[in-house]
Design a protein that fits this description.
Blueprint lengths: L4 H5 L3 H4 L1 H22 L16 H29 L4 H27 L6 H40 L4 E2 L10 E5 L5 E6 L3 E7 L2 E8 L2 E8 L2 H7 L6 E5 L2 E4 L3 E7 L2 E6 L7 E3 L1 H12 L2
Parallel strand pairs: 1-3
Antiparallel strand pairs: 2-3, 4-5, 4-8, 5-6, 7-8, 9-10, 10-11
Helix pairs in contact: 3-4, 3-6, 4-5, 5-6
């Protein structure tokens, strides 16, 4: 199987989706609980127990703090993804590995300094904790991530094979500028009023169109090259490339502010991500925005 350069260098959006992140943490926690409960009777260093004995509170503290840490970690990851725009896949993998290391270190601290469940050395306990934590968390991480990627792939294939045409469901008056978007095979997939279109984002070999439908923000994905969209929309003075991964409707831009890493676009509609402006397109975007 041949993977695109983007898939290797950029973390798939489905893995950093907020809902998928929450599912990942919940599934990992439940799997870890089942695994540790089954593993404990066969370990000479584990103190993990459920019941009413003195180690029960330590078990509850470990699970609760571990889950809270994972939740905070994923919230911060989501913030970084939105802030940095480019979140390499190797950073995502390293992030998950560091989660495992830190939880293993916390378990080692509880085992050696508080619970004192064993007479083994600190190094031995940490190495064993790291191994067990890796199994308890890495397995659900891998399974859930593969599941999210498979679901996303199926969704894209369904969109590619679908013969239906999506629209913003509005009754259009005469002389209304309409943007018609076609897939790589020339099939019309989305017809949307220009005033309802906010931006188009490139995602590997697909594009995701963000537009307003019945007062709410909707998105539609189709298999198409960004260059094709750019070439087909040359007649619209409102749609312009601002980044290699983005085409924006300049009429919908409310704020254009300068930050350390370049200009950032914000829209008048809440709930939309900020869009970066690369240096290649910054002059053109500034000129268009000043003429609004």
């Amino acid at each position: 199987m041949k993977f695109s350069k983007r898939l290797i260098t950029q973390t798939p959006d489905c893995l950093t989706d907020t809902l998928n992140q929450a599912q990942n943490v919940i599934i990992a926690t439940l799997f870890a609980l089942v695994f540790l409960t089954a593993y404990t009777p066969f370990s000479d260093t584990s103190w993990f127990q459920l019941g009413t004995n003195s180690r029960f509170l330590g078990t509850v503290a470990f699970v609760g703090i571990g889950t809270f840490f994972l939740a905070c970690s994923r919230v911060f990851m989501t913030f970084c993804v939105k802030r940095l725009r480019h979140f390499p896949l190797w950073v995502y993998i390293l992030w998950l590995f560091l989660e495992i290391v830190l939880i293993a270190a916390f378990h080692t601290y509880l085992s050696y300094f508080l619970v004192r469940a064993t007479s083994y050395s600190l190094t031995y306990i940490f190495v064993k904790s790291l191994l067990i934590t890796f199994i308890a968390l890495a397995v659900p991480y891998i399974i859930t991530d593969l599941m999210f990627i498979l679901q996303d792939t199926r969704r894209k294939l369904m969109l590619t094979k679908s013969d239906t045409v999506e629209s913003d469901d509005e009754v259009l008056p005469e002389h209304t500028e309409i943007i018609n978007l076609m897939d790589n095979n020339g099939n019309l997939k989305l017809s949307v009023k220009l005033d309802n279109l906010y931006y188009i984002k490139a995602e590997d070999n697909y594009i995701n169109v963000y537009y307003q439908r019945n007062g709410a923000i909707a998105s539609y994905m189709l298999r198409c090259k960004m260059k094709t969209i750019e070439d087909n929309c040359v007649d619209s003075s409102s749609l312009m490339r601002c980044h290699r991964s983005y085409i924006v409707n300049i009429k919908k831009v409310s704020v254009l502010h300068n930050e350390a890493d370049g200009f950032i676009i914000d829209f008048e509609k809440e709930g939309l991500d900020s869009i970066p402006v690369s240096k290649t397109y910054s002059k053109r975007v500034l000129e268009a925005f000043s003429k609004k």
